[in-house]
Specification:
- This protein has 229 residues and is an alpha/beta fold.
- The protein is built from eight helices and eleven strands.
- The protein has helices at residues 13-19, 24-30, 65-71, 95-103, 118-124, 178-200, 205-208, 212-218, and strands spanning 42-43, 50-59, 78-84, 91-93, 109-115, 128-133, 145-146, 150-152, 155-157, 162-166, 169-173.
- The strands form two sheets. Strands 1, 2, 3, 4, 5, 6, 7, 10 and 11 form a nine-stranded mixed beta sheet that branches.
- The chain is elongated.
């Protein structure tokens, strides 16, 4: 049975916006190197950086009907996350759907399939991360699900989770962990800022991170030159 869940619990807006201040790599590291979607998902224009609460859409291959259904369930601050039930490289999303989503306050789309109208989407500055760019059209024949947990690009995404996306990729932060991960990401950035200052002062990463002792323990040796044969 195909289902649309109308009421979902979204991550706290303040925590979501706090996560938006950090990059995907920082958040991925801050939550124990978890939550990173497969690197096949790439932004269609460079420089996009968004965070939003997930509205999830499970799609039949080559059929974008449920994207139209999902638009109605979106709210200000959401980010649409879509995945086909089997691999598809059709162009599910284009300018018109993006226009409708923007009017609902949607911050962007992550889709493990194709999108099209890239020039128009770029001019709109509407952020999309997709598996590919494809002009191939879709049909509207088969039902799917909206706002049910799904696997997108190898990661489980639940409705209301936080999705952060930038030039480095896409990461999912579980709804209940959003505030904790945002705090950990902030702490990590403060640490990196301190280390950056040390680099700018001429220190080596070997010393900044205290690597020399561990390298010695692993058996690394320094010699002035190779012995003659």
């Amino acid at each position: 049975m195909a289902v649309v869940v109308r009421t979902i619990q979204r991550a706290d807006r303040a925590a979501t916006d706090a996560l938006a201040r950090h990059g995907v790599a920082t958040i991925h590291e801050a939550q124990g190197r978890t939550g990173l979607l497969a690197p096949r998902l790439r932004p269609i224009w460079p420089g996009a950086h968004v965070a939003g609460t997930a509205v999830t859409v499970s799609l039949p291959p080559g059929d974008n009907w449920m994207l139209h259904v999902a638009v109605e369930q979106c709210q200000q601050g959401d980010l649409l996350v879509a995945a086909p039930t089997s691999r598809s490289e059709a162009g599910y999303l284009g300018e018109l759907l993006a226009t409708a989503l923007r009017q609902r306050g949607v911050r962007g789309v992550v889709i493990d399939a194709g999108c099209r109208d890239v020039a128009e989407l770029t001019r709109m500055r509407f952020p999309v991360w997709s598996r590919c760019v494809s002009a191939a059209g879709t049909v509207k024949e088969t039902l799917g699900d909206v706002n049910r947990p799904l696997v997108c690009a190898g990661q489980l995404v639940r409705p209301g989770d936080v999705i952060v996306a930038d030039d480095d990729g896409v990461v999912v932060v579980p709804r209940r962990d959003a505030a904790e991960v945002a705090a950990a990401a902030s702490a990590r950035e403060r640490s990196e800022a301190a280390n950056r200052a040390r680099y700018q002062a001429g220190e080596l990463s070997l010393d900044v991170y205290g690597m020399r002792e561990r390298l010695e323990q692993k058996g690394l040796e320094y010699v002035d030159k190779e012995a003659d044969d």
